[in-house]
Amino acid sequence: MKDDFVFVDEVVSGIRWDAKYATWDNFTGKPVDGYLVNRVVGTRAFCAALEKARDKAESLGFGLLLWDVYRPQRAVDRFMRWAEEPEDGRKKARHYPNIDRPQMFEQGYVATKSGHSRGSTVDLTLYHLDTGELADMGGDHDVMDVVSHHGAAGITEEQEKNRAHLCSIMEESGFSSYECEWWHYNLKNEPYPDTYFDFPVA
């Protein structure tokens, strides 16, 4: 692991994580290249900002659940190869119901050069501290559809409120949102804005 990178759970206490790309529970349907363990890795600057987000979330009765932070470039390369493979239908209904695989890149849901590979971008959600249940966001991680956009029509008042909570927590902690994905935030003053790393999460 590069010197300025750490396992997030070792630095930021009180968070939960489920590294989806290290598991079979992601849009490719199997563990992705570069994810050898179910851990999340990020820069130290990212972790410092995440601590602020954790504290703000706790003040509202929420905890943070992280799905992905640092993403090796080899994982992104795997996504590109996967997008060219024949459709098998296993994950389409859940993750990309209204588009075809190549359109994930065309419509901005997956990038050929991902901010995640710079080490300070996160996919996350909220959970209720009193019950441990995930907050209802009106959609799961990596649902590549307009319902995942900020300001999406057709979600409930509670779902809209929960998305707004997450957005305010993250933006007040130094992150910027991404209009197409309610779960995706990037550290504004990231330490490696032009570097795409490829060491594995191991």
Automatic annotation (TrEMBL):
Its EC number is 3.4.13.22. Zn(2+) binds at H116, D123, H184. The record marks R71 as: Transition state stabilizer. It is an enzyme of class 3 (hydrolase). Keywords: Cell wall biogenesis/degradation, Dipeptidase, Hydrolase, Metal-binding, Metalloprotease, Protease, Zinc. InterPro entries: A_A_dipeptidase (IPR000755), VanX_actinomycetes/firmicutes (IPR058213), Zn_M74/Hedgehog-like (IPR009045). This is D-alanyl-D-alanine dipeptidase.
